[in-house]
Amino acid sequence: MRKLGPFLWQLPPSLKYDPALLEAFLSLLPRDTDHAAALARRHNAKVKGRAQLAHGPKRLLRHALEVRHESFVDPRFIELLRRQRVALVIADTAGRWPEYEDVTADFVYIRLHGADEHYVSGYSDRMLDRWSERIRLWSAAREPRDARRISRRRAPRASSRDVYCYFDNTAKEHAPRNARRLMMKLGLRRPGR
């Protein structure tokens, strides 16, 4: 459990923004490991023997939401995420789905699906330079000047933010290469070294 990061909730492209439905869903999310374990104890027989209920010391849980329908381009959606402390996933989808950079939680969650072709294309050094600069700013609780935001309101104040960045451009092994290159640009060591 000590390596547990944020939970990713990905909505289908067909799901339109429904404020009441989304608020009801977000309000059900467990906010700590004790709450998650209590929910897990209510499991049915389908997960018998596969549910881990022991979790050690109580830890806070984080959630990130990736949307894929243009109807979510609504400032009220951003305010809902901020009230619920859920991060809007900053997704580079090669223009396939909405791509916005509103910071809505105490962390930033980035998914890089491919620069030019969804799930397929890699990122050039120039593109990775751009992402590394954005990550540095978000980590310092600042925002890029050219951030594409849904809401006019800036992110809540903070002294710093955790930033999670995932590469999902898995064709032709672009993801691990791009991840290593971005880590180098950020001055991070590769895991296990």
Report on this model:
The mean pLDDT is 90. With 193 residues, the chain is an alpha/beta fold. It is built from five helices and six strands; from the N terminus they run E-H-H-E-H-E-E-E-H-E-H. Helix 1 runs parallel beside helix 3 and helix 4 crosses helix 5. It has a three-stranded parallel β-sheet with strand order 1-2-3, with helices on one face. A three-stranded parallel β-sheet has the order 4-5-6.
Low-pLDDT segments, ≥5 res = none
Write down the Rg: 18 Å
Order of helices and strands: EHHEHEEEHEH
The largest sheet is: 3 strands, parallel
Specify the helix fraction band. 25-40%
Distance between the termini: 22 Å
**Amount of beta strand:** 5-15%
How are the strands ordered across the major sheet? 1-2-3
CATH class: Alpha Beta
Globally, the shape reads: globular
Number of extended strands: 6
> In the residues, how many domains can be counted?
1
Mean pLDDT: 90
CATH-derived architecture: Alpha-Beta Barrel
Helices, by number, come to 5
| Class inferred from helices and paired strands | alpha/beta
* CATH level-3 fold name: TIM Barrel
Relevant CATH superfamily:
Protein of unknown function UPF0759
Which helices and strands appear, and what pairs or packs with what?
Blueprint: E1 7-10, H1 19-28, H2 33-40, E2 63-66, H3 75-84, E3 87-88, E4 90-92, E5 107-112, H4 125-139, E6 162-167, H5 174-186
Parallel strand pairs: 1-2, 2-3, 4-5, 5-6
Helix pairs in contact: 1-3, 4-5
